[in-house]
Amino acid sequence: MEMTMENTVGRNRIHPKKFALLLSCASIIMMFAGLTSAYMVRHAAGNWLEFQLPILFGINTGIILLSSLALHGAYRSFMLGKEKPYKGLLLAAFGLGLAFLVMQYLGWLKLQEIGVELNTNPSGSFVYAISGIHAAHVLGGVAALAVAVMHAFTLPFKKTAARKLRFELTLIYWHFVDLLWVYLYVFFVTQH
Amino acid sequence: MANVAINPTVTHEEKLIEDYGYDDHFHDHHHGDKYQSNFITTYIFSQDHKIIAKQFLITGMFWAIIGGLMSLVFRLQLGFPEESLAWLKPFLGKWIVVNPESGMGSLSPDFYYALVTMHGTIIVFFVLTAGLSGTFSNLLIPLQVGARDMASPLLNMMSYWFFFLASVVMFFSLFLSTGPFSGGWTAYPPLSILPQASSGSASGMTFWLISLVFFVVSVLLGGINYITTVLNLRTKGMNMWRMPLTIWAFFITAIIGLLSFPVLASGFFLVMFDRSLGTSFFLSDIYIGGKALEHVGGSPVLYQHLFWFLGHPEVYIIILPAMGIVSEVLAVHSRKPIFGYKAMVFSMLAIAFLSFIVWAHHMFMSGVNPFISNFFVIFTLIIAVPSAVKVFNWISTLFRGNIRFTAAILFAIGFVSMFISGGLTGIFLGNSAIDIQLHDTYFVVAHFHIVMGVAAFFGMFAGVYHWFPKMYGRFMNEALGKIHFWGTIIGAYLIFWPMHYTGMAGVPRRYYRFDTFQAFSHFDELNQFITIAAIVTFAFQLLLVINFFYSIWYGKKVTEKNPWGATTLEWTTPIKPGHGNWPGKIPTVQRWAYDYSKGGRDFIPQIEPLAEGEKDEAAH
Question: Can you give the residue range of the structural domain that contains B80?
Fold first, then answer.
């Protein structure tokens, strides 16, 4: 499937695959814009259970930010040709990504513990639904990171255009789901 | 045509490509052969955009026949409620209830609603979204912008197969013992959420949701590809203002889809939560059998907002590709440049923008604040402006043109006719005050069937007749095509004109029968008339199906590359283009797409350099 692109790509300022990924991010943004608008509309209608968002979600925001930083570091090291920090940071980013998913799950358990179950009130249901759909998108990112880790540890360390592109695609998506969570977290905290 | 080839086998166009094209070394590699090495990779899991286009088209035709047949069954019920439908029992089984004493077979009301719902879902999504934009975006974007294929042929293939998967799930739901979903194509809660609401709300709705989520994935994968290809893979010289209007239309359509379908998906996800996990996003205060349900605190109107935020852009997702096709076909077959090229582009952009801020005009009667309605009324009526610009330009393009009355241009003209008559009623319906009387009546049914149903079908037909030679290297039968046109346009008007009348009298849509309403009894014969017109019009569509499949194998062979004398790039490819579209170099573009009847020449292809002192029309 490469052939259409590799021959025309020289004329483009942005790689078509990167551009396509940005478009997918735009469509994901629209979905979450739809969900958070629904949240606000429903919120304004009253009968809204107010509760404190468990602190776990705040900690988790830090974790996914760290993961993003680690991946960025891994990318820098990759570009500079430093194999050790590249592998280490990549592994860290992957680990932190997994940790984020586990922590989100713990966050949901905590919500249950404080009496906010999935079907208690729409205010809680929205938190479960939105963070759940976000977690599904993070899962996709973790899968991409898993492939990146696999490549890092099985392929000989070499900076090729194809690997650089693949890394950049993973990086863009991972930063995207990270920032998306930051938005959602701030949204939940300010709109509860 | 001063220096027509010295070598008689090399045409003028081929020489232009040789002289001015650029060599991307596409054919130096062997991937072209690996790509289509056996039957499965060539025809089934194909990554070639031309094959994928045919897959979309033929799947769309399959659904169009099913969706059309469904409408005939419920039209029989509406036109002839007293006649026995026992003869349909072999096809519809238990959904035809036969009275053991009289032997009279009648359509089960549950199934009537299921038919109406499925007819809407199938035609809107599977035929006029996938079958129209899927087919022609795939076929034309790479060919007309001068690309070897889509940006990502793999995603493109997946786009079709997700659509196929959606089709399989939806088709399967037709055979469930509880029947397919029956709560209307809009799937409003609570009918779409409570399995006990109707028999179709049980498994039928689950299948409907799964199918449509697959469909959204298909649209998104396709749309991402179309946008990327248009922006990143245009050949040298093909700047945005040199793109044919078809490409502009597909491009803008894909952007609308990319921004609106995810919002629909978010609504569907919340419906799934409500259905399966006990949440109450869209449900509140519902009593069944005197007992209150546990769902409290939701709002069904919230769903309507999420739905129509897609739902309204969706009608432009349907109509814009048809508009692009019609613009192209009108210009080619009237041998004139399209009138007001840039105005056409800007009006499409305006329509696209406005489509996102008018959704609540579908909800005037759902209890939204009447002051908020004002906002939506105004923007809805403003859509009439770019629409009128487009209509004016189409008519001006035809004016004093050297028109060749092929089946393609007949359907394009028919599109303009339909778009005008259906568009005008939109101005009535866009007023929230008039909507109090007209909402949910047959006036609405008449409006949207003409303006986005029949019109979009006409655009699709124009495209099929026009680009069939490019798809299969043969022509469709013109005489049959013209008969198909006259039967369809007369038939369609006979079906939908009377509905305006019944609608203004207040006859509500979606009702199973009207015999308890004295006020409507004098419409009985009109309803019979509509049903007969629908059956006859459907029969005319079989002409297209026969013509299409017959012509694939036995149609008149295309003997020259550019049978219509068109300027665009797809007609510079071989009669049957292989993988990669152009055998040697990729042509470069030297001028805009509408140089017809210019400087004493019938047409000048886009690949021909400007003569000395000649200005590119797109430049001003």
Answer: 48-284+293-612
